[in-house]
Amino acid sequence: MGNNILVTGGAGFIGSNFLRDRLASPSGDTFINLDTITYAGNLENLKEVSEKENYFFEKVNIEDETKVESVCKKYKINGIINFAAESHVDRSISDSKPFINTNVLGTLNLLEIARRLNIDNFLQVSTDEVYGSLGKTGAFAENSQIQPNSPYSASKASADHLVHSFGHTYGMNVKITRCSNNYGPYQFPEKLIPLMINNALEDKDLPVYGDGKNVRDWLYVSDHCDGIWEVFLNGNSGEVYNIGGDCEKQNIEIVELLLDMIGKPKSLIKYVKDRPGHDERYAIDNSKITSELNWKPKISFSDGIKMTLDWYLNNKSWSNNVRSGAYLEFYEKWYGGLAK
Ligand code: NAD
Ligand code: DAU
After folding, report:
1. Is 11 in the pocket of ligand 1 (CB under 6 A)?
2. Any idea what the Cα angle at residue 219 is, between residues 216 and 225, rounded to 5°?
């Protein structure tokens, strides 16, 4: 008998990559995508799997207790993977409330429903940002101190604490994954890599925060999705698993590489005011998941960045369609405020 898995936030960047990967080959599992479709959610991302007989979509907010519970009963859900979140650090600096509502209260709601209905496999998709910022050396391990610095990371850290507390208090089978920066197809073009690709293609300025020397540890999205699946199936209850690609890069390195790949001049780079509270460096120690669950990244950065650029080159209409309304309003206001 396969599982009936509730995938929340399945219409976003990582959730849709996860669903496409899982649904690519036949399996006994059924996937129910529960997503409220915010500015970052898009059912277009799932058009190639929407007709599969083991895929269903429910337009529901994770904060809506009655509706989430009834979806869980309808499909006899026995596992939850919670991708749903407000995910953009800059937005959390400009307006933090939606982050608390979805990331904290929404997660609490899912946990309560899982507890009531005895749904005994709950995976929380979390982030390395809960550990705060590193200096020039070291890497985050699962037992590193939780020291979130932005409203986004504070909301994700709060959710992680709630997940842990439900495992500890009620004996539920809960797991947490904490991944570094993802990149790949269908990433909303507010995040560094797709934003820079689109701006370069359109000969617009490439806004680099501060001195551009902040470091992120990059992982191709399908590798993250494989890690999540591995932890969901085989991870130990109550434990945290870091997921990362051992691929540290300064932001400016990435921006310059993309300009070279696209064939556009460095003069498009525009240094702007820094993001308030900007974390200096992230790096993940992935030794636990590699040794205990045999996971390792399959896609090198040089292959992943080529595949990503090709995808954005071949899907310009996707970017044009998602960059509308609320996105444009935020973009103008935010980058207007960062102009030097
Ligand atoms: P995203 O912003 O692209 O997608 C989020 C999805 O969640 C959207 O489909 C949106 O409609 C949905 N959603 C938001 N609020 C909701 C609500 N209240 N109810 C139901 N659905 C809701 O985000 P992403 O980059 O795909 O991130 C997915 C998860 O992975 C998040 O939990 C994020 O914190 C985590 N994460 C992201 C990264 C990264 O680099 N993007 C790295 C580590 C962890
Ligand atoms: O580390 C995991 C996290 O990675 C996830 O939890 C978040 O959901 C995800 O958004 C991402 O957070 P970051 O803040 O690291 O990602 P972002 O793409 O917004 O920024 C990456 C780096 O690039 C960061 O140092 C800020 C910088 N940047 C970003 C933008 C959008 C710029 O210099 N200019 C920009 O215009």
Report:
1. yes
2. 135
State how far the Cα of 223 lies from the Cα of 243, in Å rounded to an integer: 9
Hey, what CATH class is 4-183+219-243 in? alpha beta
pTM for the whole structure: 0.98
Q: Is 268 helix (H, G, I), strand (E, B) or coil?
A: helix
Ligand 1 mutation target, pool 60, 83, 97, most atoms within 8 A of CB = 83
Q: pLDDT tens digits, residue range 176-187?
A: 999 999 999 999
CA 259 → CA 112, 201, 280, distances in Å?
47, 9, 23
199 lines ligand 2 (CB under 6 A): no
Domain boundaries, the chain: 4-183+219-243
pLDDT at residue 324, rounded to an integer: 85
Residue 152 appears among annotated catalytic residues: yes
Mutate to test the pocket of ligand 2, among 83, 93, 216 (most ligand atoms within 8 A of CB): 216
Separation between Cα atoms, residue 188 and residue 202, nearest integer Å: 17
Supply the DSSP string of 169-226, one letter for each residue: HH---EEEEEE-EEESTT--TTSHHHHHHHHHHTT--EEEETTS--EEEEEEHHHHHH
Note the pLDDT of residue 325: 83
pLDDT (tens digit per residue) in 81-106: 999 999 999 999 999 999 999 999 99
Q: Band the pLDDT of 327: cuts 50, 70, 90.
A: confident
